[in-house]
Design a protein that fits this description.
Layout (H helix, E strand, L loop, with lengths): L17 H40 L6 H8 L6
Length: 77
């Protein structure tokens, strides 16, 4: 027994041949695949831009240089 559930129906023209029906279904599947791929790429792009923006807008710690100098055993300003 197969566990396949039909989750989407494609409007087929009346009188379409088996080849035409198959072609329409394949075209619908390719369209869904391409759309999902483009949406995933858009989400990655937006996440990357948000990360870049967050990195560029962080404030520099004014005491970071003093801490680094102290770790090296040098006096601060």
């Amino acid at each position: 027994m197969s566990a396949v559930a039909i989750t989407r129906t494609v409007a087929l023209p009346r009188g379409a041949s088996a080849l035409e029906r198959g072609t329409i279904r394949v075209a619908d599947a390719v369209t869904r695949w391409a759309t999902a791929r483009a949406e995933r790429r858009q989400e990655r792009h937006e996440a990357m831009l948000a990360a870049i923006q967050a990195e560029q807008t962080t404030k520099a710690d004014p005491r970071a240089a003093d801490r680094m100098l102290a770790q090296m055993g040098l006096s601060g300003r």
